Queue: 2 jobs
Job 1
Amino acid sequence: MGLTQSRPEVYPGDIVEYPRNKYFSHFAVYYGEKDGVPYVAHLTCRDSDSKMILFGRALRSEIKLDPLELLGKNYKVNNMMDGCFSVRDFHSVVKPAIDELMGREVTFDILFHNSEHQATLLRYGVKKSQQIERIYKHIMPSWKKLFEQKKL
């Protein structure tokens, strides 16, 4: 029938969302093309040498540049806070920030510093996670004692 799958139009600085399951997605910031290949910058914990799976934390995570479709072919543009916050200029603010962060160690923490936090911090200068806010009321009671004992 001549139907082809269309991809969302992506511009430098856009937040790209890769749905993972019913509750969580992985987020990245579109970086642009290098040698004709589109790239995204994202916070990754896949190469971390110290993971605490139970608490959703990975030490020594980092910001990486990977081809757009390496993270998944199912993605969408989700600039979720464009109506609330002004978008920072990609070429003068966001791209230099990504370049500076690359290779530096970051603690990936599902509650306090995850890929959505990193993407909104780069795009808007605000660290916010809508997916965490939706499930926080379910997570916090199970972790409250551990927070109080400073085990998290």
Job 2
Amino acid sequence: MGSTSLNLEDVPSDSLTTELLRRMKCATQPDKRLILIGPPGSGKGTQSPMIKDEYCLCHLATGDMLRAAFAAKTPLGVKAKEAMDKGELVSDELVVGIIDEAMKKPSCRKGFVLDGFPRTVGQAQMLDEMLEKQGVKIDKVLDFAIDDAILEERITGRWIHPASGRSYHTKFAPPKAPGVDDVTGEPLIQRKDDTVAVLRSRLEAFHKQTRPVIDYYWKKGIVAKLHADKSPKEVKDEVQKVLS
């Protein structure tokens, strides 16, 4: 397999300068290994890119890592693909192994934001053991705490225009005319994941599986509880206070 090398002469100067300045800023940042925990709709997806950029971390989302491992045909990726092709769940050992592989990338040199894992206490213990072998540990767990009723209002009010991807919210960003797209006048739809029944079953699973994970890290004294019902800007300010 031939590797493609990048000729720096072909990279625009402003791009090089931006990257150089970013790396210089990153060199002064302390290492951070973070876990984001929160129910669907709690705002993790909004905050994680900002945390990643602000602190020069890599973003490790289990779904993305599994897909990357499949595509790269790593030994662990091949095993995970075999399990999924048989309709089996990917084992915790494999997922932790894939996280271990992903952490070795240059972009993870200053640490990572782990999103969507661990979901159970067993996974948290395995992750801790793997990190301990590398002489590092989780520095902070950000708990996106929010009341189920607020989540229900947030999520079940979402409607989209399928052709353009434009999204609306019955309370926070309503269309000009109920149920139709502002631009085309075509009907809006609700994604099946955004219904009350689906949300309630996802929340039930989250509380049952993941609350014990928060308790596990709480005993280690590394959980920071965020008020995820606030605006994204206020939550971002809380995150910065916690991590500074």
